[in-house]
Amino acid sequence: MKVLLSWLGRTDLDQMKLDKSASIATLILRGPFFDEVVILASAWDDEWYDYKDWLKRKLACAGRSKTSVEIKRVRLTSPIDYLSITKVMQKQLSAVSSDSAQVYINLTSGTPAMTVVSVLLGKGNAKCQFVQTSPKGEINDVDIPVDFAIEYSKSSSTAISQLVSKQPKNDGAFSSITANSAVMQETIKKAQRLAYSDLPALLLGESGTGKEVLANCIHQASLRHQKPFKAVNCGALPENLVDSILFGHKKGAFTGAERDHEGLFEQADGGTLFLDEIGELPLVVQVKLLRALQQQEITRVGDTVTRTIDVRIIAATHRDLFRMVSDETFREDLFYRLAVGVIELPSLRQRADDIPELVKEFMTDINEQMKTHPLFESKYISKAAIYFTVSHHWPGNIRELWNTLNRAALWSENKELSRADLEVATLSLDNIQLAEDKFFIPGDLQQYIDNIKKDAIISAMDFANGNKSKAAKSLGLKNHQTLNNWLKTYDLDF
């Protein structure tokens, strides 16, 4: 059995009144013989019966009186509502397909939305064939040379691939950070969770702990990683140029403003702006920064045009912002606007387990950078020197460790950097800091005690030239067996 399935169009009814054939009439009178014609209609019901009678008379005159015509009432939210059209078409197509060998779907009558749904559903039914008519009354079979299932699979795969490629590589973004210590591993976990959000971030910690490095990693692991990362040290900004550097300026806004200038907010649009040492910003600039964060708008110096920006702020400071808020040297509203995702970076002395790995990485970098120096030869660091770095206080944190290794590598004439080389290269700020502090516990107390013991063991073994009995005596131990146990405990190889 062959069935024609069609929506009822306004043109079909209007042409009927002129006793002329529109799409449906043309198909059933001049097209292939149909056993049944099913017409779906949701409006103009006062004209249906006249239209049906007119079709039957025309079919009788054409010798096709055996063709059954049925107009079915369907309910649509509107003639362009895809959801309701789809539900109706799914139900009707399933019904006619179950009893028919071939189903022809008319694509001419009805709204464009009805045609689209008919094509999409019909392509998934092996019994369906599409037909349409031209304004001149010509009948055309329609071949749509697209396998929607295959194309959808391809486009889905492509979309997923593109999405995956755009997604930040969270683990990879933080791979440059050495995190063997438990405290640093916990810091990285927090940073990874913060990265996928778009919240403002505030990084706290002593100078030299790597706040800018962590900020860059958060950006690279975020959904903004393909957009710019801009960084500025707020403490280094000239007070008279702060506004211009951050928010930009208009040509002629002040002496020397020879052209329009995009500030850092505009340069970082879509990406991340890292404001290091934010506690150094003047109060007047803090007000403008707060407005930029709240309104996502900035105004260049000397301009009246407000510009919309989309920037994630990561701020950092080594200063006590809580005290500054209390002293009214830092705006409370700005503080709470920034202090959403707060991460406190541990000092280097709190992450002593990371130091040996950091030293090895730094020495590799130093050798690479110094290879063009005519008086420099590649150097490596002794175990005793590494033990010294682990036990040292490092008030300047990672930055001080890096500088100390650089100085030692530059001044030493030996291929192996010894403990003495590092002691000479270490500045005396550590001693000054310890003298100023009335009470000081560097991170984990037990770890600090262990570091002192390790340092003492190494010194004793150096003093005794490897003689364990002499070294044990110098440490006040009753026998060298205790010293052997200590060497095993601290994994010292002598």
From TrEMBL:
Residues 177-410 form the Sigma-54 factor interaction domain. It holds the Pfam family Sigma54_activat. SUPFAM superfamilies: Homeodomain-like (SSF46689), P-loop containing nucleoside triphosphate hydrolases (SSF52540). Gene3D superfamilies: 1.10.8.60, Homeodomain-like, P-loop containing nucleotide triphosphate hydrolases. Keywords: ATP-binding, DNA-binding, Nucleotide-binding, Transcription, Transcription regulation. One of its GO terms (biological process) is regulation of DNA-templated transcription. One of its GO terms (molecular function) is ATP binding. PANTHER family: SIGMA L-DEPENDENT TRANSCRIPTIONAL REGULATOR YQIR-RELATED, TRANSCRIPTIONAL REGULATORY PROTEIN. This is Sigma-54-dependent Fis family transcriptional regulator. It comes from Photobacterium kishitanii. The lineage of its organism: Bacteria, Pseudomonadati, Pseudomonadota, Gammaproteobacteria, Vibrionales.
